[in-house]
Design brief:
Blueprint: E1 2-6, H1 12-21, E2 27-31, H2 43-59, E3 64-67, H3 70-83, E4 88-89, H4 95-101, E5 106-111, H5 113-116, H6 119-128, E6 133-138, H7 142-147, H8 154-164, E7 174-177, H9 186-193, E8 198-200, H10 203-216, E9 227-231, H11 237-247, E10 253-255
Parallel strand pairs: 1-2, 1-3, 2-9, 3-4, 5-6, 5-7, 7-8, 9-10
Helix pairs in contact: 1-10, 2-3, 4-6, 8-9
């Protein structure tokens, strides 16, 4: 079973890519909505939650764990790999391809404040963006709007425009999305950028990596495909309401507080 988790529903953008790439595999997705958003939380809090979620998903039969959250990857993936004995895939802003493909030498990264300030992003910039100007911008309130299912409301449009419109005068030609919630707002981003800005969503690269690791470890799906959705919120209704909106069809949602 492929296990995935995020602070909330943003990781469903990665779920879509993994399902498309590995259609025969069962997938369990856990949304830690009781602690969402992770961005304002301390590193220690995020690590503690990651370990609790990781151990739970292992107990449910995980073959591989996908940390479908940039903030959790940044803060906790080292701790997860040290404690859990299964392959673990994290996610990070697609700075490398955006910088490599830039013609103007100027790109932007959109992510949470935690991710933008992280040592991991600094390493990505040092390793892959030498000679490229990288504008780092936080999508304030974007995660909360996606969690609320407000993908096209006027408030969400205004929040997106407040971040993206100023970038249009900065001669950028690529934007790396550094939060798994943000791909759900791509239509609103495109309203501002049009087609002249390339957007990089790392979800497909993550799906390829999951497939590669499963093959390397000699794993197969055994033909037992199912999709399971879990929230740590006491109320599973909100997540159940959002699934058709975010991934195109309804599924039952279980509540598992983990406290």
């Amino acid at each position: 079973m492929i296990a995935m988790y995020d602070s909330g529903l943003g990781g469903l953008s990665v779920w879509r890519a993994v399902r498309a790439a590995l259609p025969d595999w069962p997938i369990t997705y856990l949304a830690d909505q009781a602690y969402c958003p992770y961005g304002p939380r301390s590193r220690d809090e995020i690590i503690a939650r990651a370990l609790k979620v990781g151990h739970y998903l292992v107990s449910q039969g995980a073959t591989i764990l996908v940390v479908a959250c940039n903030t959790a990857t940044t803060a906790a993936i080292a701790a997860l790999r040290a404690e859990l004995s299964l392959p673990i895939v994290g996610i990070e802003p697609a700075i490398k391809p955006a910088a490599a493909m830039s013609r103007t030498g100027r790109i932007a990264v959109l992510a949470t404040e935690y991710t933008l300030a992280s040592a991991r992003v600094k390493t990505l910039l040092d390793d892959h963006a030498d000679g490229v100007d990288v504008l780092r911008r936080a999508g304030h309130g974007w995660v909360e709007q996606v969690e609320a299912g407000e993908l096209s409301s006027e408030r969400t449009r205004a929040l997106v425009r407040s971040v993206v419109e100023p970038l249009m005068g900065e001669n950028i030609d690529h934007i790396a999305l550094g939060c798994t919630h943000y791909p759900f707002l791509e239509p609103l981003i495109r309203e501002v950028t049009g087609d002249r800005i390339q957007l990089y969503d790392p979800a497909e690269a993550i799906a390829r990596r999951v497939g590669d690791l499963l093959r390397q470890h000699g794993c197969d799906s055994q033909g037992d495909r199912y999709y399971r959705f879990i929230t740590t919120s006491a109320d599973s209704g909100e997540m159940a309401l959002r699934l058709p909106q975010l991934i195109g069809r309804p599924y039952p949602v279980e509540s598992q507080p983990l406290d």
